Input
Amino acid sequence: MRSENPQTACIFAGCHGSVTEATYVGGIVPYDCPAMSAENSVVPRLSFGVIADPQYADLPPNVGMGRYYANSLQKLGEAIDRFNQEDLAFVITLGDLIDRDWAHFDTILPLYQNSRHECIFLPGNHDFAVAPEHLAGVYAKLGMPAPYHDIARGGCRFIIIDGSEISLFAPPVGDPRRADAARRIEVMKVAGEANANPWNGGIGGTQQAWLSERLAQAKAAGETAIVLGHYPLYPPNDHNLWDGAVVAGLLAEAGAAAYLCGHNHAGNYGRLGSTHFVNFCGMVDTETENTYAIVDVYSDRLEIRGFGREPNRVLAL
Output
């Protein structure tokens, strides 16, 4: 069932460029609500489905952590059935398709064959909780053309980043990026950074340069840039990407419309400059209540239709 939470939605009726408020975990963020017009208020340019952290495993639940691994199969099926009722450009799963073990991919991935829409994946930290010989094959298993890449749809540029590029778990054993990750996390711990945790990751200079280039290209082409990743960037949180502050600043400076992610299963929201940072709730977390969303992209706003635990949001562009 779709959630209805007026505290998380900007209600456009009667709004003519005034300042409206949106709540997120940790405080209130004001943003501008643009004037409506008949041309841009009715039909979205495109819509897409969002799923975060199914984290499936054939395991009993960890009630203490609120993880109901096996129940994600039914929840995912429900989400796909609902998506099939909509005209969507694609469905994106924002990482942690499985909790662990390579064999679990072969149980959950076939459910996506029931989708009438294109299904796009990016990996989270749990997707690399597999035997060492399978690490290099995770991206291909998810059908990704490259660990980070971008796609164009309906005047939008969707930029998919790889937040596990430098981590203690994703690079193959012996890869120098593992040693780099170990050095980074120690420096962060000394500095007292809350996200200096082994379940997070970071991105390298080459990927950051690529991201800047893609954002500039999207801006020059007049495209709406939406960046997708597993790890949050903003507001500050112990689940954030190691480079989160730098990357968030990069997105804000480039005027990206939004950054969408999972990883922090509680969900979150913030705004930096004109860029919205939306952290979607984790599907694995409850015994029966589901969570997923549909994002409608208009010329002047993003509307997030939340289902189950996911709140509704209207985010001005």
Observations:
- The chain has one domain: 6-316.
- Confidence is low (pLDDT under 50) at residues 1-39.
- The longest strand covers residues 301-308.
- The radius of gyration is 19 Å.
